[in-house]
Structures are given as structure tokens and as C-alpha cells.
């Protein structure tokens, strides 16, 4: 066969009627990518085909819904992106036409989708319990929103960059856990042990930390707006540049805490222990409305801390 004759055969038009749906393609498209398929055999020239006498359509008694995907596969070798039920329908057609490459491609696409779904699926409380039984546990960047993790031993666990919105950590042991840059808005840490935890840059807006033990915890640059620290133990805590706007610190123990540059606008400090707290660059005028509700001795203690901080600056 000459090159010219070969080109004519491959490029010759073929009209197909698949279950009544009309398609137009070439012999080359139907035979080259899948040479062992039923379609390739049909148009190999070895078989007599039944054609419409008027328009020359070759009729195939199959559903034509997905035949365009089959033609596109034969043209380009690309598996289409479909819903699972549509993949099942296309797979059935590919099996009928004996398109082995397309069958393999569909199965690979389904396997990849299943893997991705497993990675994206949310963890359960049981999953967390299983994980923390190992020596080193990390949930960095994991979405744990809404989980009940109360009363678990989660000490030293790394939650950095995770989404912890509305998670229940009540009475959990979180000593030395890492919460760097987490989004823990609205989470519950009521009576939790958070000693020496790292919350640097964390978003804890609206979180409940009442009664929590936060001794020596690092909350630098954290968003603590609208948080409740009622009765919390914040001795020697690092709160530099933290945003405590509208935070409720009533009865909190802030002895020796570093509040340098912290925002305390409208913060409630009634009954809070601020002895030896470092208040450099803290605008006490922002908490004037609060002073009206605290005792004379507490107000004097605040002023003493301010004087000590100013003396340190001058020195």
C-alpha cells in the first residue's frame, strides 16, 4: 500500500449511529489507538458492515450516551473526569468495545479518587485515640473541626497549622502540645492542662479556657479576642503582643506573666492576680472601664507593675 493510499484509508470518513445517536469520525481514529478492539476489527476492512443505504451510517446497537467519550479517548488518549456512576456506565461500554487502554485508565482514575477521599476524610475520636498510642504524634495541618477530644492524654502532640474549630478539649492533658498557627476558634479548653504549650500565632477567638492550667504557655501574637480565661492559671505565661480584646480574665492568675505589647481593650481583669506581671507597652487606659469594677488593692497592684515596667525602661 502506498503512503497516499494509507492516508486515504486512515482519513476516510465513517458515519456511525450508536443507538440512534449520530457520530462522524475516521477509520484511523477507530483503529490506531486500540488496534485489538472490536471497533478496530470492524473497520479493518476484513468485515462487511451493514450501512444505511441512504446516508451510509453504520448502526451499532448500544447506548450512545458515552460514545463521545470513547471517541475522544481514541483521538487523544485522555480519560474524562466523570461522576462515579458515569464511570461505571462508561466502563461497561469500554468493556463491550474491548478498549483495554480505556478500561485501565478508568480503573486508575477511580483508584486515585478513592485515595484522595481517604486522605480528605475527617478523623474520628477513635482514630485519634489509636494515633496517640504511638510514641510521636503529629496532626499538623489536619482538619479536626468539631471533634470531642475531652479527657484524652494528648501531651506533646503536634497540632501545628491544624483546623481545630469548635473542638472539645475539656479536661484533656495537653501539656507541652504544639498549637502553632492553629485555627481553634470557638474551641473548648475548660479545665484542660496546657502547661508549656505553644500557641504562637494561633487563632483562639471566642475559645473557652476557663480553669485551664496555662503555666509558662507561649501565647505570643495569638488572637485571644473574646476568650474566657476565668480562673485560669497563666503564671509566667508569654502573652507578648497577644490580642486580648474583650477577653474575660476575671480571677485569672497572671503572676509573672509577660504582657509586653498585649492589647487589653475592654478586657475584664476583675480579681486577676497581676503581681510581677510585665506590662511594658501595655495601654492601661484601654482597660479604664475595667478598673471601675476591681478593688482598690488590685488597682494599686496594676499601677505598681506599671511603675516597675517604666523603671526598667529608664534603667
Keywords:
315 residues; mainly alpha; three-stranded mixed sheet; rod-shaped; disordered N terminus
What value does the Rg take, in angstroms?
35 Å
SSE order, one letter for each helix or strand: HEEHHEHHHHHH
Tell me the span between the first and last alpha carbons. Answer: 100 Å
- Give the overall form: rod-shaped
In percent, how much strand structure appears in the residues?
under 5%
What number is the mean pLDDT?
A: 85
Based on DSSP secondary structure assignment, what is the total number of beta strands?
A: 3
Q: What's the main sheet like? A: 3 strands, mixed
Overview in brief:
The chain has 315 residues and is mainly alpha-helical. It has helices at residues 3-11, 27-31, 38-42, 67-76, 84-96, 100-120, 125-131, 288-291, 296-314, and strands at 13-18, 21-26, 58-60.
Amino acid at each position: 500500500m502506498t503512503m497516499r493510499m494509507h492516508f486515504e484509508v486512515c482519513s476516510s470518513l465513517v458515519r456511525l449511529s450508536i443507538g440512534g445517536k449520530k457520530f462522524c469520525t475516521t477509520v484511523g481514529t477507530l483503529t490506531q489507538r486500540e488496534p485489538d478492539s472490536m471497533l478496530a476489527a470492524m473497520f479493518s476492512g476484513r468485515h462487511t458492515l451493514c450501512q444505511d443505504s441512504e446516508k451510509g451510517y453504520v448502526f451499532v446497537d448500544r447506548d450512545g450516551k458515552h460514545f463521545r467519550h470513547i471517541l475522544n479517548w481514541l483521538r487523544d488518549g485522555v480519560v474524562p473526569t466523570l461522576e462515579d456512576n458515569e464511570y461505571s456506565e462508561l466502563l461497561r461500554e469500554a468493556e463491550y468495545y474491548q478498549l483495554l487502554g480505556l478500561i485501565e485508565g478508568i480503573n486508575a482514575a477511580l483508584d486515585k479518587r478513592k485515595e484522595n477521599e481517604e486522605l480528605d476524610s475527617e478523623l474520628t475520636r477513635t482514630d485519634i485515640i489509636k494515633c496517640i498510642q504511638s510514641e510521636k504524634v503529629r496532626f499538623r495541618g489536619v482538619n479536626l473541626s468539631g471533634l470531642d477530644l475531652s479527657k484524652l492524654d494528648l501531651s506533646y502532640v503536634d497540632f501545628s497549622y491544624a483546623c481545630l474549630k469548635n473542638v472539645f478539649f475539656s479536661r484533656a492533658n495537653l501539656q507541652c502540645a504544639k498549637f502553632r498557627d492553629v485555627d481553634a476558634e470557638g474551641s473548648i479548653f475548660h479545665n484542660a492542662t496546657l502547661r508549656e504549650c505553644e500557641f504562637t500565632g494561633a487563632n483562639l477567638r471566642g475559645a473557652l479556657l476557663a480553669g485551664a492550667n496555662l503555666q509558662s504557655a507561649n501565647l505570643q501574637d495569638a488572637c485571644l479576642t473574646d476568650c474566657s480565661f476565668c480562673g485560669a492559671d497563666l503564671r509566667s505565661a508569654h502573652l507578648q503582643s497577644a490580642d486580648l480584646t474583650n477577653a474575660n480574665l476575671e480571677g485569672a492568675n497572671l503572676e509573672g506573666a509577660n504582657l509586653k505589647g498585649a492589647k487589653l481593650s475592654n478586657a475584664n481583669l476583675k480579681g486577676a492576680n497581676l503581681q510581677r506581671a510585665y506590662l511594658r507597652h501595655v495601654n492601661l487606659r484601654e482597660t479604664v472601664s475595667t478598673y471601675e469594677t476591681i478593688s482598690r488593692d488590685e488597682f494599686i497592684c496594676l499601677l505598681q507593675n506599671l511603675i516597675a515596667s517604666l523603671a526598667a525602661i529608664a534603667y
